[in-house]
Amino acid sequence: MENETTIKRFVDIRRELGFTQAEFAEKLGVSNTTADIERGRTKLSGKVVTELLRQFKVNPLWLFGESDQQYLDTSRVSVIPKVVTVDSAEHDNMVLVNAKAAAGYPQNISDTSFYRQLPAFDLPIPEFRNATYRGFQVEGDSMLPNLKPGDWVLARAIEHIDHVSANKMYVVVLQDSVMVKKIEKRPNSNNVTLVSLNEAYPPYNIKPFQIQEIWEVSSKLTFDVNATTERGLLKQLQESMEELKKQVGQVKN
Questions:
Q1: Which residues, in sequence order, are CB contacts of 242 under 8 Å at separation 6+?
Q2: What is the pTM of this model?
Q3: Which of 35, 65, 77, 119 has its CA 20 to 30 A from that of 99?
């Protein structure tokens, strides 16, 4: 029989992550429910401990009462791009991820062949040579009035969640979705809060390890009807880049 500390910590983890006993069982590959584990009737198997570590970064030593550090590596969760795309001259280029592609983006995030199917543009401005940018199409109305459905955002990769600022917008790539949100981090909290500008959408909490990538929104594009061709898209993209260049120049001055 498991000791009481282990059972309590197992229950605490499930509640903290917001799963029912049935949902948690499914996540961990346990049949039906975690109720027997939580009552101390079923031993916590090596497979369950492994899944807790693999999926949720739960420290096995913490689980068994031998450490106070609940999560492993939460301070070092990497949100840098899993794939950096380059043109034939080995320069970074900008891939455009439309709403349809965004649906498959989290699952294909490390698959280089996925990115090759997407339109990509060279960045003609020197300021953009020292950072990785990506374009994402906005879905839904959660960021109204700033972003309308169908708008595009141009966003710069950031390396670490500690680099986020409460007054900027970000493209957040979770394990199963891509969304544009503001990000709030509270001191001494394990949670990250994702905030919509549209007040009809309440903020919600996630864990840092649920985030695959974060991109800081630099500019938005509202494409007109003429942008349906790649040439039209490129023209508007370059105009937006010029606008962005002015913004960069103003920041430096």
A1: 125
A2: 0.67
A3: 77
